[in-house]
Design goal:
By secondary structure, this protein is an alpha+beta fold. Helix content is 32%, strand content 24%. Strands 1-2-3-4-6-5 form a six-stranded antiparallel beta sheet, covered by helices on one side. Helix 1 runs antiparallel to helix 2. Adenosine-5'-triphosphate (ATP) is lined by residues 49, 53-54, 56-57, 93, 95, 97-100, 102, 110-114, 136.
Length: 148
């Protein structure tokens, strides 16, 4: 995978239009290795939205901004880890701007990604780590069992 380095749970991506594809493949492989097929579809969808947003944010983030200068302006990264049965997914980018849920009209072609994340994730949010940029995170819980 050109531009991709990383271990099983951590993935550093060069910022390309194809980054979301590599992130989706990574997440699918990690969840398969964890035997968490129940969350693959959801995790892949959410990953796609968060990494696409990170790529777009990177494109609108000049390398001269303070956050980008302190951090790593050429890459984004993501990782995922387990807390009990819950999967935590994090995506970092160098932009200081923050995610905002939009209110798209029927003719708008954008502004839906975070709605999907909000729908599928148990929780999501963001924070600014000290090296700069920002991390958008979400938690994914197993689907509820049908009532007996
Ligand atoms: N990682 C991010 N960094 C900075 N701003 C972000 C980030 N993610 C989202 N945003 C902001 O939040 C808005 C809403 O994101 P959302 O994913 O819902 O829509 P979109 O990316 O504009 O369009 P779509 O996902 O439907 O193609 C974005 O337009 C952008 O302004
Ligand atoms: Mg989006």
């Amino acid at each position: 995978m050109t531009g991709v380095t990383g271990s099983e749970q951590y993935l550093k991506l060069s910022v390309f239009p194809t980054s979301a594809y590599y992130a989706r493949v990574h997440v699918q492989r990690v969840l398969e290795s964890w035997h968490r097929d129940d969350l693959i579809e959801t995790a892949v969808l959410v990953t796609s939205e968060l990494v696409s947003n990170a790529v777009k944010a990177h494109a609108s983030c000049p390398a001269t901004t303070e956050a980008a200068a302190q951090a790593d302006p050429d890459h984004i990264w993501m990782d995922l880890y387990r807390v009990g049965e819950t999967i935590v997914l994090r995506v970092w980018d160098a932009s200081p701007l923050t995610p905002v849920i939009r209110d798209p009209g029927p003719d708008d072609e954008s502004g839906r990604g975070l709605h999907l994340v909000d729908l599928l994730a148990s929780e999501w949010g963001y924070y600014r780590p000290s090296p700069g940029g920002k991390i958008v995170w979400c938690t994914l819980a197993p689907p509820a069992s049908p009532e007996e």
